[in-house]
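Field log, afternoon session.

UNIT: design team B
ACTIVITY: writing a sequence onto a fixed backbone
BACKBONE:
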């Protein structure tokens, strides 16, 4: 993918120009807040990030003359010890954040194992389904 990256106009797979984020596609956005943090602010921040990510994906697909079929993207909010999963979709120029679901409370052993299990599933999805979609659609042949 590094060779293909040289063909991308801004030399980044992502909406960020931060050097550490340019060469590997972002697949899960995470927002962290203290236990007293504002959940609405977290959702707004994730909405901004994932909207920018979808715009970048659309740019890559258009650059490669691929159809604009964008995948669902998982999002995480960690508020203190509470972990939430949200899903984002993009259709007709609109990014939608679907309702958040509590994954677990990581202050308990069972909760921590649940968080680890979900992170493993997201890692597996990122390395199989999302990576495959990204290579087939966003990376230039």
């Amino acid at each position: 993918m590094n060779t293909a990256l040289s063909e991308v106009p801004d030399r980044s797979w992502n909406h960020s120009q931060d050097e550490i984020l340019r060469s590997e596609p972002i697949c899960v956005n995470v927002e962290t807040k203290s236990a007293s943090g504002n959940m609405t602010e977290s959702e707004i921040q994730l909405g901004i990030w994932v909207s920018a990510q979808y715009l970048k994906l659309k740019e890559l697909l258009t650059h490669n003359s691929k159809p604009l079929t964008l995948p669902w993207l998982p999002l995480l909010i960690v508020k203190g010890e509470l972990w939430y999963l949200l899903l984002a979709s993009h259709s007709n120029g609109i990014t939608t954040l679907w309702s958040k679901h509590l994954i677990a409370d990581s202050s308990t052993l069972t909760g921590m194992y649940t968080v680890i299990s979900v992170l493993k599933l997201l890692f597996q999805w990122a390395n199989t389904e999302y990576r495959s979609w990204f290579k087939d659609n966003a990376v230039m042949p």
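LOG NOTE: Residues 2-137 form one domain.
NEXT ACTIVITY: expression trials, pending approval
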